Amino acid sequence: MKIVVTGSLGNISKPLTEMLIARGHAVTVVSSDAKKQADIESLGATAAIGSIADVAFLSSTFKGADAVYTMIPLSFTEPDLGDYMHRMALNYKQALKEANTKRVVLLSGWAADLVKAENVEYLFDGLEASITIMRPGAFYTNFYQSMDLIKGKGLTGKFLTLRYSGLGTLLSGKTGLLMGNYGGDDRIVFVSPKDIAAAVAEEVLLLPEGKTIRYVGSEEMTCNEAAKIIGTAIGKPWLKWILLSDKEMLQGLKMAKLPEKLAETLVEMQAAMHSGKTLENFHRNHPKMGKVKLADFAKEFAEAYHKK
């Protein structure tokens, strides 16, 4: 089969490409970074260098493909995350329609039907194609974004720096903390990008009628149980996951100068996880869990943690 994979050589797209090539499929990988071309070709895939904002490029790339895997990378520079995701989804839809693509696998999120800004799934309605929507849980790789906080530097980087009254005192001189407006004893389904890739690799070869939804997870546990696994791997078994209120989280994001609408969307996503509704939806669909345990990922995380 001829299969197009978007997402460059990201946490899902790279292992997905490797799996598909190992099974004898012809794979084209879409990347906006020309520097990735050699790496893509070294896997045995064809590189298509261009932007998902360019409908003509997408249409040309999708033409003749038996199946297309589509994903919209999360952007922390767009002032309105919902508007950005809707624009990119409509670009995909137009390109898939022009290319007459018959099989589409779309990466979504397990809170997509609960968070208005994140929900672009309905925009693909009306396509004359077999569409499967992948709704994975919370990525293991999200822990990398909290590395500075765990080291006692505050929650920094592209998310936020929590240094204001109350939370500033909490963080002062302490290490071994995770934070969010979900956490503590909230039960969460975590997922390895490798397990998502394996599920997508299965789906692109199928041709169900109309639109189907597949939830993907690797392991379910409380946030504090997850924190202990990560903490033990890095020599901090006391690691805790502090639950913030929505107001505290939003204030921190705004103080970090994130655009207001983006901050509100991030808070809404995490609030849906804290509410338990995402977990209810997950169990209602009886998904098959993946193979990669958080303890396996924790070894990779520890290696990166001690190098930083």
UniProtKB/TrEMBL annotation:
- PANTHER family, sorted: PRESTALK A DIFFERENTIATION PROTEIN A (PTHR43162:SF1), PTHR43162
- Pfam families assigned: NAD_binding_10
Query: Superkingdom, according to UniProt?
Result: Bacteria
Q: What is this protein called?
A: NAD(P)H-binding protein
**Coiled-coil annotation: which residues?**
none
The NAD(P)-binding domain, residue ranges: 7-121
